[in-house]
Amino acid sequence: MVLPAHLQHIVDAEYPRFSPAEMARRRAAIEKLLAEEECDHLVFVGANRVGSAVQWLTQWPVTAEAVGVFTPGKRDVLFVQFVNHTPQAALLADQAAVSWGRESCIEQAIAVLEQRDARKKRVATIGPLIADQQAALTAKFGTVKNLNRDYVYLRQVKSVEELEWMRIGAHFSDLGMMALRENARFGMTERELGDVIERSYTGKGGMHFIHYIGATPMAAPSVAVPRQFPSTRKLQKGDVIIAEITAAFWDHPGQVLRSFALGDKPPQLYRDLHAAADAAFDAIVKVLKAGALPSEVIEASNVIEQTGFTIIDDLLHGYGGGYLPPILGTISRPAGPVPKTPFRAGQTVVVQPNVVTKDHKAGVQTGELVLITETGVERLHAVARGFSVI
């Protein structure tokens, strides 16, 4: 499995960059949003590798903490913790004025806002602000406008360049799933299997997000969904291995889900579970296109209940720039009120009808990240679908 040359060129860069035109597109979108909300400045925040707006606006992946100030017509200012993270932040966020945040990144950002004559009720925020940060901003500038919902709406639809990076993330995720399929052996632990998965892509430029693995005897199952932390249980002949793998290229991930029978053909129960999952996946991608409604996706998944099964995980969710809406369940396992907003071309979503028995003892994984287009969906993954015997 080889990346196309134009994508490999991105991976091979010492530090890959989005084009000036792409970064200008993002800034224009934020400026428009600020104008609509009658705000003059944006404070964008990330901490502990959470807070995608920091990387989206500056190209600095958040480590411990980062607080930025965005003002239309002025250079961004970015404050970073810790001091030893500042040199590389300045290298990657090379269009921003990057400094160490000292005792408080938010206090440094407030000082910049005061220098820029920020007025009360004219400051907005994006990102996971903690209570102390919110209180400090409010004390100086009154009520601040929370733009997180608007930002998520912007991030749902991907640009051409963002899609290129997500195709790379999908490629690395495929490598992880192929490594699982090709290396799973009797006697291996789930920990050892996770090690094999990560080594398939980290040396090539992929970054680890998740590899959730579950293994259980198909004759007497007790695991219906992959576990978030691996166990020391050793793989045995007759096991089913169910897996969800996300590797990323910087903050642009893929996500692929598959099931494998180890050493034996799956019994009837597992064949029925996977047949229902395949039927649901096919029905969902058949209705997915620009203009389709979330309710149509849920209706398409009814084959799961018709065959006497249900799900544990979400049926479908947006992905790329976060775990994004819409987040959908099924009739038997709803995920809250069904959104009414139609799907848009350029959205990337994970379709994952992970079908389980009603007693939650047996289950399968299938699904992957797809791109919604005007006429349907485009697969971003290349690893084969189906219930393989390994």
Task: Give an account of the 3D structure.
This protein starts with a helix and ends with a strand. α8 (160-183) packs across α9 (190-199) and α10 (268-287) runs antiparallel to α11 (294-300). The longest helix has 24 residues, at 160-183. The relative contact order is 0.11. It has two domains: 5-155, Creatinase/prolidase N-terminal domain (Creatine Amidinohydrolase, Chain A, domain 1), CATH 3.40.350.10; 160-389, Creatinase/methionine aminopeptidase superfamily (Creatine Amidinohydrolase, Alpha-Beta Complex), CATH 3.90.230. The model has no long low-confidence stretch (mean pLDDT 97). By secondary structure, the protein is α+β, with helices and mostly antiparallel strands. It is built from twelve helices and 18 strands. It is globular and about 70 Å long. Strands 7, 8, 9, 10, 12, 13, 14, 16, 17 and 18 form a ten-stranded mixed sheet that branches.
List the helices and strands and how they pair.
Elements: H1 5-12, H2 20-36, E1 41-47, H3 52-58, E2 65-70, E3 77-81, H4 86-92, E4 97-100, H5 105-115, E5 123-126, H6 131-141, E6 145-146, H7 148-156, H8 160-183, H9 190-199, E7 207-217, E8 239-249, E9 252-253, E10 256-261, H10 268-287, H11 294-300, H12 303-306, E11 310-311, E12 316-319, E13 323-328, E14 348-351, E15 355-356, E16 367-372, E17 377-379, E18 387-389
Parallel strand pairs: 1-5, 3-4, 5-6, 10-18
Antiparallel strand pairs: 1-2, 2-3, 7-8, 8-9, 8-10, 10-16, 11-15, 12-13, 12-14, 14-16, 16-17
